Amino acid sequence: MKLQVLGPADFQKMPWKNGLGVTTELAVARRPGEDGFDWRISTATVASPGPFSLFPGIDRSLAIVRGGTLTLHVEDCPDVTLSTRTPPYRFGGELAVTSTPALETVGVPIDDFNVMTRRTAWQHTLAQHRLDGDAVTWALPTDADAVAFLYCAQGQVRVNFTDGQAMSLPEGHALRVGGGDACELRADASPTHIFLTTLSRR
């Protein structure tokens, strides 16, 4: 099992594809071409209404980290309003999407969490949990090329692996896991808000 802890010094900020905002790349599998990746995990800030960038052939999942609610107006789909309490929303990157934020605090943008995978080659899952007392068991993908990725958005999470390894991951840090079986996740600080992503080849 391979473990890699990532922190703010490892993340890369870059402009949105449409130039209307900023994305922070947490992890990425790069490739040649216009979009430049096979998969990407990132966060972004949204402060005002506007369109999303188009990513043809990409499957996307989006969830809210903090800052308010975000209403998505998705081509040919009903509007959906996301908050820190709603499940991640999945949609095709080729769809025209605009968003309308409702900020919790004036002048403080919404932070969101994004996972993107190239549809012909990769697939992903995304879940979010608020840890408070009870542990969450996270089943890790077993395929050789698969990746499991944990991001601690708030608080501090204790990670206990079945082989006896353990670590605490603080707010704003991520853990990339290759291999393994399962692990147990508990809050080391309350409240603790985490995002769990798995990536695997089709």
From TrEMBL:
Q: InterPro entries recorded for this chain?
A: RmlC-like_jellyroll, RmlC_Cupin_sf, Uncharacterised_HutD/Ves
Q: Under what name is this protein listed?
A: Protein Ves
Q: What is the primary gene name for this protein?
A: ves_1
UniProt-listed Pfam families: HutD
